[in-house]
Design goal:
heterodimer; A: about 375 residues; mainly alpha; 3 domains; two-stranded antiparallel sheet; B: about 290 residues; two-stranded antiparallel ribbon; 2 strands; about 5% strand; amino-acid transport (chain B); cell membrane (chain B)
Chain lengths: ~375, ~290
C-alpha cells in the first residue's frame, strides 16, 4: 500500500495527490472521449443525460452534501435555466451568452431563495424549498407571454460559432462532458478554498463555525447561489437535449430524482454525484432489459431445477405479467431508495471506498471502519 | 357576504381534511422526530383497505371502517419495524428519504393491485345536505369536520394526560434518557406508528366520498397537508388543525376571489411568508441549541 508523506499544506490540498490519479483519470477520460465512436447512439444519448444529471448532482452536492442544507426544489432551478435558454434563443442570442446568462440568472434566484432559507433548518427548509419549486412551476404555467404556459416551448437546435450542434450528435455529448468536467474541477477548487472550508464547517456544526468567525449567513447564501447557478447551467443543456420544455417536466418528482442521485452516489464526495447520475440514468435501459429478458431467464432457471414444461410456461407467463405491470418502475425506485438508506448509507462511492480499503489492508480490514455513529441523545429540534 | 361565508365554511371543511392528514405527520414527529413523507400514502392505502372491505367484500360500513383501521395499524407497525427502526438515530434527512422511498413503493404497488381507476365507497354521509338559512353544507364534509375535532381532542388529551403520551413526548426529546428512565422506546415508537396509520386510515375513509380513492390521492393531499403541519409548527397537535384550516381557507378564498392559478400557489406563498417571520411555525416552540 502507498503511504503519502505530507510535509506541507500544499500537499494536503492537491487535486491529484499522487501519480496513480493521472493514470486512472487519464484512462477514464480517454474512454469518455472515444465513447461516441464505440457505443450505440442510444447509449451515447443516455451518457448525455448522465452528464446533465451529474452536473445537477454536483450543484446539489455543494448545497446538501457540503453545506448541509437539504433542498427538494432543484427542479425549479433547472427549469429557470432551461427557460432562460429557450427565451433568449428566440432573440438570436448566441449560445455562450445565454448559457452563462442562464447560470447567472439561476444563481441570482438561488441567492434570493437563500435569504429566507437562512433562518430555516431541517424539515422547515425542505418544505420551504418544495414551496419555492411549486411557485416556480405555477409561474411557468401562467406567465404565458414569456413561457407559453402549458403549451411549452420549442428549443431550436444549438448553434455554436455558426455550427449546428444537433442534440443527438457526438459534438453535443462532448459539450455536455466538457461542462461536467469543468464544473467538477471548478467545484473541487472551490472546496479547497476558504469558501469550501467554510461550507464544510457550517455542515458539521453551525455554532462551531460561527464561533470560529465564519459568517454563516453569507456562506449559506453563497452556497445556495453557486448550487443554483450550476443547476441553471445544466438546465440550459437539458433544454437543448429535450428540444422541448414545458412546466410539467419540472415537478417535485424531478427534484426527488436529483436527491436520489446524490443519495445513491454518496453524499460526501463529488464522485457520488457522478456515480449516482450513472445509476439513475442507466436504470431505465436496465429495467427495459429486465422486462424483455427476465421472464425467459426465470423460466429457464425453473426448467433447469426440474420444473416440467407446463409449470415453466406458467412461471414464464407470471414473470412476464409482473415485469410488464404498470408502475413497476415506481416500486423498484422505492425499494432501491429504502435499501440504500438502510444498508448503504454512504452510497455507491462509499461501497467503492470500502472495496478499495479491503484490498489495501487485505487481511486486516475491519468492517467497523465505516460504521456510522447513531445519535439518540440530541434532538434536531434544538439546533 | 353569503358567498364569503359559503367559501369560508367550505374552506374550513377542506382545511379539516388537511388537518386530519397533518395530524398523522405531527404524531410521528412528536413522538420520534421522524418526518414521515409516506403519511399521505398510508392514508391512500387505508382508503383502499376500506374499499376492499366495504365495496368488494360487502361488509357493513362501520365494520369495514374498523377493519381497515385495525389492518392499517398493523401495517404501520410493520412499516416502522422494517423501514424506520434500523435508521432511528441517524440524521433526519436519511429518514425523510426512506419514507419517500416507502411512499413510491406503496403508490406503485397499490396501482398494480387495485389498478389506477377512481374508486368510491358508499358511506352513510355520501348524500344529503344540511341547510342553515341559505348556507348549504354537505354531510360528508360535516363528517370530516366532526371527525377532525374529535380526533384532535382525543390525541391532545392522550399526549398530555396519559402515561403513554408522556412517555412518547419524553422519547422524542431524548431517546437515550427515556430509555434509562425505563420507557420501552422501541415499543413506544411502534405504537405511535400504529396510531398514526390508524388516523391516516380514518382520514382516507372519511375523504373517500369527497376525493374518491385512487393511487395518487395520498401524494396530492399529502403535499397540501405537509405545509399545514409546518404552518402550525411541526409537533403541535392543535397547530396541525389550525394550520390545515388556514391552508384550506386560503385555498378556497384564493380560488374564489383571485385569478385562476392562485388557488394552488397561495397556500405555499403564505407558508413561505410565515416561515420567514416565524421560522418555527405558528405554534412551534423555539429552542436554542446548547453547545
Amino acid at each position: 500500500m502507498r503511504f503519502l508523506f505530507k510535509t506541507d499544506y500544499e500537499d494536503d490540498i492537491k487535486l491529484f495527490p499522487h501519480s496513480g490519479y493521472y493514470v486512472s483519470y487519464g484512462i477514464l477520460l480517454a474512454f469518455l472521449l472515444i465513447a461516441p465512436f464505440v457505443l450505440s447512439s442510444y447509449l451515447v444519448s443516455q451518457l448525455v443525460f448522465v452528464c446533465i444529471y451529474a452536473t445537477v448532482g454536483v450543484g446539489l452536492m455543494i448545497l446538501t452534501g457540503f453545506t448541509g442544507q437539504a433542498s427538494l426544489g432543484h427542479a425549479a432551478f433547472l427549469a429557470i435555466g432551461a427557460y432562460t435558454a429557450a427565451y433568449l434563443q428566440q432573440y438570436n442570442v448566441p449560445f455562450p451568452v445565454y448559457f452563462l446568462a442562464g447560470g447567472l440568472l439561476t444563481g441570482v434566484v438561488g441567492a434570493l431563495v437563500g435569504f429566507p432559507a437562512l433562518r430555516l433548518t431541517g424539515i422547515y427548509l425542505v418544505i420551504a424549498t418544495i414551496s419555492f419549486a411549486f411557485i416556480v412551476e405555477e409561474v411557468l404555467a401562467r406567465w404565458e407571454s414569456v413561457t407559453h404556459g402549458n403549451e411549452g416551448m420549442r428549443v431550436k437546435t444549438l448553434s455554436l460559432f455558426g455550427q449546428a450542434v444537433p442534440q443527438n450528435g457526438p459534438t453535443f455529448y462532448y459539450l455536455c462532458l466538457a461542462v461536467l468536467v469543468l464544473t467538477i474541477v471548478g467545484t473541487l477548487n472551490l472546496l479547497r478554498s476558504p469558501t469550501g472550508r467554510a461550507f464544510v464547517a457550517i455542515r458539521d456544526s453551525e455554532t462551531a463555525a460561527r464561533s470560529m468567525g465564519v459568517n454563516v449567513s453569507l456562506y449559506k447564501v453563497k452556497s445556495f447561489a453557486i448550487s443554483a447557478g450550476i443547476t441553471g447551467l445544466a438546465g440550459v443543456l437539458f433544454a437543448h437535449k429535450l428540444s422541448f420544455i414545458s412546466p410539467e417536466m419540472f415537478t417535485l418528482q424531478l427534484s426527488i430524482e436529483f436527491i436520489i442521485v446524490i443519495l445513491i452516489g454518496g453524499t460526501f464526495s463529488l464522485h457520488g454525484a457522478v456515480l449516482g447520475a450513472i445509476f439513475l440514468v442507466m436504470i431505465d435501459p436496465f429495467l427495459t432489459y429486465l422486462k424483455d429478458d427476465m421472464p425467459g431467464i426465470i423460466a429457464g432457471l425453473a426448467a433447469t431445477f426440474g420444473a416440467d414444461s407446463i409449470t415453466a410456461n406458467k412461471i414464464h407467463a407470471n414473470a412476464a405479467a409482473i415485469a410488464s405491470a404498470n408502475g413497476l418502475k415506481g416500486a423498484i425506485y422505492g425499494v432501491i431508495i429504502v435499501l440504500f438508506v438502510l444498508f448503504e448509507p454512504l452510497g455507491l462511492y462509499g461501497r467503492w471506498l470500502k472495496i478499495k480499503l479491503f484490498f489495501q489492508l487485505f487481511p486486516l480490514y475491519k468492517r467497523a471502519t465505516f460504521k456510522r455513529q447513531k445519535i439518540y441523545v440530541k434532538s434536531e429540534r434544538n439546533r | 357576504m353569503l358567498d364569503f361565508v359559503q367559501q369560508l365554511v367550505s374552506g374550513i371543511a377542506l382545511g379539516c381534511v388537511y388537518g386530519l392528514i397533518a395530524l398523522g405527520f405531527v404524531l410521528v414527529y412528536k413522538a420520534t422526530e421522524v418526518v414521515n413523507f409516506a403519511q399521505g400514502d398510508l392514508m391512500m392505502l387505508g382508503g383502499f383497505f376500506a374499499f376492499t372491505f366495504i365495496g368488494m367484500l360487502g361488509l357493513n360500513y362501520w365494520l369495514g371502517f374498523a377493519g381497515a383501521v385495525a389492518a392499517m395499524a398493523a401495517f404501520g407497525m410493520l412499516a416502522e419495524r422494517v423501514v424506520v427502526r434500523p435508521i432511528l438515530g441517524y440524521p433526519q434527512f436519511s429518514i425523510i428519504m426512506a419514507t419517500i422511498g416507502l411512499g413510491y413503493f406503496l403508490r406503485s404497488v397499490v396501482g398494480m393491485i387495485w389498478g389506477t381507476d377512481d374508486f368510491k365507497i358508499e358511506t352513510p354521509f355520501s348524500e344529503g345536505v344540511l341547510r342553515i338559512g341559505s348556507l348549504v353544507l354537505a354531510y360528508d364534509k360535516l363528517s370530516v369536520i366532526a371527525a377532525t375535532i374529535i380526533l384532535c381532542a382525543l390525541l391532545y388529551l392522550f399526549f398530555n394526560r396519559t402515561t403513554l403520551g408522556t412517555a412518547m413526548r419524553a422519547s422524542s426529546e431524548n431517546m437515550l434518557a427515556a430509555y434509562y428512565m425505563g420507557i420501552p422506546v422501541k415499543r413506544v415508537v411502534s405504537i405511535v406508528w400504529a396510531i398514526s396509520a390508524a388516523v391516516a386510515t380514518a382520514a382516507g375513509v372519511l375523504l373517500a366520498p369527497i376525493t374518491f380513492i385512487h393511487s395518487n390521492v395520498g401524494l396530492v393531499l399529502g403535499l397540501k397537508a405537509f405545509p399545514a403541519a409546518v404552518l402550525g409548527g411541526f409537533g403541535s397537535i392543535p397547530g396541525a388543525v389550525v394550520g390545515g384550516v388556514l391552508i384550506g381557507v386560503i385555498e378556497s378564498m384564493a380560488g374564489f376571489y383571485l385569478p385562476q392559478g392562485w388557488k394552488d400557489v397561495a397556500p405555499y406563498i403564505v407558508l413561505l411568508v410565515v416561515l420567514l417571520l416565524k421560522p418555527e411555525g405558528l405554534f412551534g416552540v423555539h429552542t436554542r441549541k446548547k453547545v
